[in-house]
Design brief:
- The protein is of the alpha/beta class.
- Helix content is 42%, strand content 20%.
- It has nine helices and ten strands.
- The strands form two sheets. It has an eight-stranded mixed β-sheet with strand order 3-2-1-4-5-6-10-9, with helices on both faces. The chain has a two-stranded parallel ribbon with strand order 7-8.
- Helix 4 runs parallel beside helix 5 and helix 8 crosses helix 9.
- The longest helix has 21 residues.
Length: 240
Amino acid sequence: MASTSATVVGSTGLVGAAILNHLLTDSSVTSVSTITRRPFSFTINDPSKLHAITEPNSDTWPSSLPGLLTSPSSTVFFSALGTTRSTAGSIDAQRKIDYDLNLALASAAKSAGVKTYVLISVTGADSSSRFAYFAIKGKLEDDVAALGFEKCVVVRPGLILGDREKPRLVEVPFRMLVSLVSWVNADWGNHAGQSCTMIAKAAIRAGMEEGVWEGRKTVDGKNGGKVWYMAMGEIVELGK
């Protein structure tokens, strides 16, 4: 891999933190930029390569992003940004983060010259879904894919496994089920839920390794570029 720089948003969350720290330990990555609402609550690998801005008001992020992207110049943009309805307070408030802010940041990244965009989405995302969460995720997928990045990767994990700062009670029974399935057959378990580390590794490889695109099923973006919708099996393959 050629040396590159990258930007990550959503880097205080489970998958975003894993992406950030994996990038910081990657010898081919010269620098990593990020913008967060709050300081990191975990240990940062090689902070000498990190250019971080803490800004509690995320409404200002799209206008701040161009400067973050160009100093130093980022060629790959990773978004693991997202929230939950319970954290946001309402589905409308969740939409402002999961869709509005994500799309504004993706648009700013495209305008700043970013070539490759990687979005952490979810299996089942569909803009026509009758379930608000999946409809929001699907609409975001549709609209970022239409921005015309040279490469756009939409990563669609199943249940995301890992230790969250704030456990999501709704996930508890599903985690128990995945644990049971994994006990019976590890491969089955991997295809039901993927660890944050596995997802991060797959996302980074798709964003930075030219070779992993060979033979993949991609579609043409509405305004140019190639779009790869990465399914759970591909996450397992690339993230091991």
